[in-house]
Design brief:
The complex is a heterodimer of chains A (about 550) and B (about 700).
Chain A lengths: L8 H17 L6 H25 L8 E9 L4 E7 L1 H20 L8 H20 L3 H22 L4 H34 L6 H4 L6 H18 L8 H8 L2 H26 L1 H27 L4 H20 L4 H32 L10 H4 L1 H14 L6 H14 L3 H26 L16 H19 L2 H18 L22 H10 L18
Antiparallel strand pairs in A: 1-2
Helix pairs in contact in A: 1-2, 1-4, 2-3, 2-4, 3-4, 3-10, 3-13, 3-18, 4-5, 4-10, 5-6, 5-10, 6-8, 6-9, 8-10, 8-11, 9-10, 9-12, 10-12, 10-13, 10-19, 11-12, 11-17, 12-13, 12-16, 12-17, 13-15, 13-16, 13-18, 13-19, 15-17, 16-17, 16-18
Chain B lengths: L5 H20 L2 H28 L5 E16 L2 E13 L1 H24 L5 H23 L3 H19 L6 H32 L4 H9 L10 H16 L8 H4 L5 H10 L4 H8 L1 H5 L2 H22 L5 H21 L3 H28 L17 H15 L5 H16 L1 H26 L36 H16 L7 H7 L4 H11 L16 H28 L2 H9 L1 H8 L4 H75 L4 H25 L1
Antiparallel strand pairs in B: 1-2
Helix pairs in contact in B: 1-2, 1-4, 2-3, 2-4, 3-4, 3-10, 3-15, 3-19, 4-5, 5-6, 5-10, 6-8, 8-11, 8-13, 10-15, 13-14, 13-18, 14-15, 14-17, 14-18, 15-16, 15-17, 15-19, 15-21, 16-18, 16-19, 17-18, 17-22, 18-22
Classes of the chains: A mainly alpha (about 550), B mainly alpha (about 700).
Chain lengths: ~550, ~700
């Protein structure tokens, strides 16, 4: 196992889609099926090469794993520095899986400018994976921006009615947020230089920084704008329903399943551990925005007449739940938050796929156009039922695990917050079941629906992994939660100086300096090594200094 | 006993096989066979486990099969604990009794359904058995779960199955609506339940029933105030009011009668709706420590029992009568738990499962015979056509009315005795309810089985009615009311026997001492309610009434029941016109009752409409204000751009152009000189020379 890191696994995962995209450039745009096969092939290949992340991840260490480190822009200290922990590994797996599913789902849905479409989707894959693996803040930022472009075109070219408006809105919203985030990054960068005399974007070093509270406060705000737009949190959410509604199905799936996770990933990877004191100071604000998001998103979802827009608003509600768990700043809450990020990818991604299936057949998203589909498309109705139940957190399915951990995690912090947030479970059931009733139940009143075909084999194939995952996480989430232990510990050690992880008996009990932690100081020992020793993942914390 | 996890798993597998393969491929008999076999196997295992439990010295057995939520550190009141939930099942007297009820009655209802649902097309038929098996899986999880969270899995799962089965005929809007209503109202209850669970963990650092009970046993009884245990119990009870249809969340259960009748029998009478009672009984030690909440439970139970019974008095839909009766009887059970008579509650739960399942299946048999007619006003004299159904339903009615020696008498009497000891007012309410129960049940019997036949005549009644039912799929003509096939009557017989004898396990002391029999169920169940209470004996909440008082109470309640039956007899058999007279004389009250006190309308006008309106309002807000701000910012940017554009074009560029213009215009003068004619240039040159020379001369000689 320990020799796997000598092999540039992460680069392979990241660049496999890119290779596919480059290859597509050389294929004639008229041989559309060849293009489809190549794109699907590389997407699946991308997923397969990411599987070692699941099997080879060492759950016992809090070190970064599969690390690769090369010089990039030495004059400013930026490096090609990548590596993962359990958290990012799971998100990468989610990205490669959902990417394959999204690409497979487009087979018949996209018939125009097929080549460019797949190239953009594959580029997007590389961008997303790159953001998740980056341990260099500048590298992260580059990937963060890179993702924007393909998504912009996916919405703007292959979207529906209001696509240009939505695409530009999506682009500008994220861009404004990320520009301000860049200021925050630079502030940390220069502060780090001021303290240590070293110019670097190394995130692992930033994780040990003890910035003065005032600076933390401002940087938190800057990061917050960048990430909160992406999550999206109320009141920065309005780009989401538009983008989702107008994006092609695959775009919506990726957007919901992976792109939104960039925001929550950013919070957990950057805001919380780099700015622990500011994080604590902002807890009530973020929590209330999350609670508003949960309830507001659910209520607005209830008022929707557009199927896809309803799912989009439900996303706002669910992501509020994710943020809430995170800002509980308890291990259970953060674990729940991460689990729920994956769950949201599965269930909301699945719901968007489901809308896509009927949209492809009927070219309308109006809920009132449907009704009685259970009779015509029984398999579809069954899958939709499972996804609905997963979305509203029925036990034995995945959503429940996340919700219960989040709510339990926040409950021990503040009972009132938990009570407000728990209303989400009632409202969630209300709007989803009403949607289900309006589309699936009743009689088939609309003659246009009479001849609809049930799920094809290919469509069924897109849902199968999601169904399996939903049940797996619902019944036996242990493998997922175990993989998150050390990631959660890392964050907890920063935001709560008295925190003692369960599995690290030798961990520091002694009071750390404000915001500091000896555990991390130990990791520091490696990161300040001369770089190349990081190429080999060290299972034991070595004194490489 | 180590295999108790197979008890829920078998029906779960049945559901999986039928759901994944059956709906597409299996014939009706194969699907029904699989479903029944799964339940039969589960029943056998339950009997086996129960026998082992009876023989065991220590009547508690916990089986942990896997980790579910692995340990994660989390603060509790007493320092950092570990949030951890294993897949663990617990067999003790209480859950042992419950698995027998669920698998036993479940099995009978599976058999019954295989005939009752025969009119369904194949796909629907298999789907029905899938749901039914799935329900039993979740119900057994609920019962066997050894922690709050595993119980909650079953708790929510049965809610899902209830939703699916109520809405089984989803093409009917009323059915789909009812299913949704059931789920959402239950979710409101669950809101309280999960908060209660969170508080349990926060307080005790564990979610395991036994550990919680042990920890709670060491805490003081919150007699004077409203402490944390009281809050826990109150929140849990909110969950119970949802699942067990108590005030204020009972409104979904009558609507749930939209489901097929076997479903009403199994889920909405015998098993699922008793889950709330079971949960409260399961946490007896907790509730014992919260006397104030116990009182609330008792009051809610008694009032629900009474209110539901009053509504039941005037319903004409045979299933609605039974539905309100169920709500009312569940109220009895909560009254029992509220006065600390947990074993009486469980006892009544058990006898009620028999006679109410019987009554529902009987009503299903009638509905079946009447070609899906549910209105009792269109029935009458049915005993002539279906004697078995009549006899068995009659038995059930006697049992529920509380006439000795049928089962309902014993369990209801025990509840009444405990209530009498605790609180005379509540006892009064309960006795009035008992009278009403006897009245409306026999009203049902008399309207259905006695008097004139008021239904459609079947020579011309092939397809002229069916506004109530699911008869679109009936392929055959109706040939008048008829007795149901053997597959349906056999379960009726079995349940009728149960309704007669089930009470003998709980013979009250007054009679028991007389004939030398102890109260078997009381002794059997008691350990489940005192688990964790070290040093407390069996008699921690005993009955301290003298035998004379007990005899008097029994006699009185039998008398009241007899009066109810007599009144029904007079009004519906002897002088049916009097019923109509009552209706006109008390028109106002009658209207209120038939409209169920307008509670649905109230909820609709407030909660439902309020939520919808706020949803729409917020959406307008979202579009107008939140997004308006965004679009406004966009508009402002564009406006600024336009202004810049104008500035640029007319001011900045204008200046540039002005300069250019000046030069252009200025050069006009000079341009005029560029004529291209040599003579002009020559003149100009001469003129220039002249000027220069002049200047030179003047400068030289003047200066």
């Amino acid at each position: 196992m320990s020799n796997t890191a000598e092999f540039p696994l992460l680069s392979l995962i990241m660049f496999t889609p890119l290779v596919g995209a480059v290859l597509l450039l050389f294929v004639s745009k008229h041989s559309e099926n060849t293009i489809r096969w190549i794109a699907n092939g590389f997407a699946v290949l991308g997923f397969l090469v990411s599987l070692p992340l699941w099997f080879w991840l060492d759950q016992s260490t809090s070190d970064w794993q599969f690390v690769e480190r090369l010089s990039w822009i030495p004059s400013i200290g930026a490096e090609y520095f990548i590596g993962v922990d359990g958290f990012s590994a799971l998100l990468i797996l989610l990205a490669t899986l959902m990417g394959s599913i999204a690409i497979l789902s487009s087979w018949t849905a996209i018939t125009e400018r097929v080549k460019e479409y797949y190239i953009f989707l594959l580029l997007l894959q590389t961008g997303m994976i790159g953001a998740f693996v980056s341990l260099d803040f500048l590298l992260f930022f580059v990937f963060w921006e890179v993702m924007l472009v393909p998504m912009y075109f996916l919405i703007g070219i292959w979207g529906s009615t209001n696509r240009l408006y939505s695409a530009i809105k999506f682009f500008l919203f994220t861009l404004v947020g990320s520009v301000i985030m860049l200021l925050g990054i630079l502030a940390v960068y220069f502060y780090h230089h001021e303290v240590t005399g070293v110019y670097t974007f190394d995130i692992t070093r930033f994780h040990e920084l003890n910035m003065p509270f005032d600076l933390q406060w401002w940087v938190f705000l800057a990061f917050f704008l960048g990430f909160a737009v992406k999550v999206p949190m109320f009141p920065f959410h309005t780009w989401l329903p538009d983008a989702h509604t107008d994006a092609p199905t695959a775009g919506s799936v990726i957007l919901a399943a992976v792109l939104l996770k960039m925001g929550t990933y950013g919070f957990i990877r950057f805001s919380l551990p780099i700015l622990p004191e500011a994080t604590q100071a902002f807890v009530p604000w973020v929590v209330w925005l999350s609670i508003i998001g949960i309830i507001y998103g659910a209520l607005v979802a209830m008022a929707q007449r557009d199927w896809k827009r309803l799912v989009a608003y439900s996303s706002v509600s669910h992501m509020g739940m994710v943020m809430l768990g995170m800002f509980a700043l308890t291990p259970v809450g953060i674990t729940g938050s991460i689990v729920q990020q994956i769950n949201h990818g599965i269930s909301t991604g699945g719901l968007f796929l489901l809308v896509g299936v009927v949209y492809e057949r009927r070219h309308t998203r109006e809920i009132s156009e449907y009704g009685g589909l259970s009779k015509i498309m029984p398999a579809y109705a069954a899958v939709f039922l499972v996804m609905t139940m997963s979305s509203i957190g029925l036990p034995t399915l995945n959503g429940f695990i996340g919700e219960i951990l989040i709510l339990q995690g926040i409950f021990v912090v503040n009972k009132v917050w938990a009570a407000f947030a728990a209303t989400g479970i009632v409202l969630g059931a209300a709007y989803m079941l009403w949607l289900y009733q309006r589309t699936m139940f009743g009689t088939v009143n609309n003659p246009k629906n009479e001849g609809l075909a049930d799920l094809s084999l290919r469509e069924f194939a897109t849902f199968t992994p999601l169904l399996i995952l939903a049940v797996w996480i619902g019944l036996y989430p242990k493998p997922f939660i175990d993989r998150l232990d050390t990631s959660v510990d890392r964050v907890m050690a920063r935001v709560n100086s008295t925190y003692a992880p369960l599995n690290a008996g030798a961990a520091d009990e002694d009071e750390a300096e404000p915001g500091g932690g000896d555990l991390l100081a130990q990791i520091d020992g490696e990161t300040t090594g001369d770089g190349f020793d990081r190429l080999v993942r060290l299972p034991v914390r070595g004194g490489s200094r | 006993m180590d295999l108790i996890w197979l008890i829920p798993l078998l029906p779960g597998l049945g559901a999986a096989v039928n759901g994944l393969l059956g709906i597409r491929y299996f014939s009706k008999p194969v699907a029904a066979g699989i479903a029944c076999a799964a339940m039969g196997g589960s029943l056998l295992l339950s009997l086996f486990a129960f026998a082992q439990l009876l023989g065991a010295e220590h009547r508690e057995h916990i089986v942990t099969i896997a980790n579910w939520i692995p340990p994660i550190p989390l603060e509790t009141v007493s320092g950092v604990g570990q949030f951890e939930v294993p897949w663990a099942f617990r067999l003790d007297p209480l859950s042992g009794m419950m698995i027998l009820i669920v698998t036993g009655i479940g099995f009978l209802i599976h058999l019954y359904s295989s005939s009752y649902m025969d009119h369904e097309p194949r796909g629907g038929y298999v789907r029905f058995f899938t749901y039914l098996n799935l329900f039993c899986f979740f119900m057994l999880m609920l019962v066997l779960g050894s922690s709050f969270l595993v119980m909650f899995v079953g708790w929510e799962g049965v809610g899902l199955c209830s939703y699916l089965l109520i809405g089984f005929w989803y093409h009917k809007k009323s059915a789909a609506d009812a299913g949704k209503k059931a789920f959402i109202v239950n979710r409101i209850g669950d809101f309280g339940f999960v908060l209660g669970v969170f508080l349990v963990f926060f307080t005790f650092g564990t979610l395991d029933f036994r550990e919680v009970a042990e920890a709670a046993a060491h805490m003081p009884v919150e007699a004077g105030g409203f402490g944390v245990i009281s809050l826990i119990c109150l929140l849990l009870f909110v969950g119970a009011t949802g699942k067990s249809a108590q005030i204020p969340l009972y409104v979904w259960l009558p609507d749930a009668m939209e489901g097929p009748t076997p479903v009403s029998a199994l889920i909405h009478a015998a098993t699922m709706v008793t889950a709330g009672v079971y949960m409260v009984a399961r946490n007896a030690v907790l509730f014992e420590h919260a006397p104030n909440v116990m009182f609330i439970v008792a009051v809610v139970g008694a009032v629900t029992a009474l209110v539901a019974a009053t509504i039941g008095l005037v319903q004409t839909d045979i299933k609605k009568v039974l539905a309100y009766s169920t709500v009312s009887q569940l109220g009895y059970m909560f009254l029992a738990t509220g006065v600390g008579a947990f074993s009486a509650a469980a006892f009544h739960l058990m006898t009620h499962a028999f006679f109410k399942a019987l009554l529902f299946l009987g009503s299903g048999s009638v509905i079946h015979a009447m070609n899906d007619e549910q209105d009792m006003q269109k029935m009458g004299n049915m005993r002539r056509y279906m004697p078995v159904t009549f006899i068995t339903m009659f038995v059930g009615s006697i049992a529920i009315a509380g006439i000795p020696p049928f089962s309902g008498f014993f369990s209801k009497d025990e509840i009444l005795a405990y209530t009498f000891q605790e609180n005379k007012v509540l006892w009064g309410l309960a006795v009035i309810t008992a009278g009403m129960t006897a009245f409306y049940m026999f009203r049902l019997i008399f309207m259905t089985f006695f008097g004139e036949y008021r239904g459609p005549s079947w020579e011309k009644a092939d397809d002229s009615h069916g506004d109530h039912g699911h008869d679109d799929n009936h392929g055959h003509a109706w040939h008048g009311p008829h007795e149901s096939p053997r597959l349906m009557t056999t379960p009726l017989w079995v349940l009728a026997v149960g309704a007669i004898v089930a009470g003998f396990v709980g013979i009250p002391a007054a009679i028991g001492d007389f004939i030398g029999v102890g109260n078997a169920i009381h002794h059997f169940l008691e350990p489940s309610f005192t688990a964790g209470l070290a040093g407390h004996g069996d008699e921690h909440a005993g009955l301290h009434l003298s035998h004379a008082v007990e005899w008097a109470l029994m006699a009185f309640s039998v008398l009241v029941a007899a009066c109810g039956i007599g009144l029904a007899y007079v009004n519906y058999v002897r002088r049916p016109e009097r019923a109509a007279q009552w209706k006109t004389n008390w028109a106002g009250a009658h209207r209120v009752l038939t409209n169920k006190y307008y509670v649905d309308e109230l909820y609709d006008a407030t909660a439902v409409k309020g939520t919808m309106a706020s949803g729409r309002g917020l959406w307008t807000f979202d579009k107008g204000v939140v997004d308006g701000a965004v679009n406004g910012a966009g508009w402002l940017t564009r406006a600024a751009a336009w202004v810049s554009h104008v500035l640029d074009k007319y001011i900045v560029d204008g200046l540039v152009n002005l300069v250019g213009w000046i030069f252009a215009e200025g050069s006009y003068v000079f341009r005029r000189g560029q004529t291209g004619l040599i003579q002009n240039y020559a003149v100009a040159t001469l003129f220039g020379v002249f000027v220069f020379v002049t200047v030179y001369v003047v400068a030289r000689y003047v200066g």
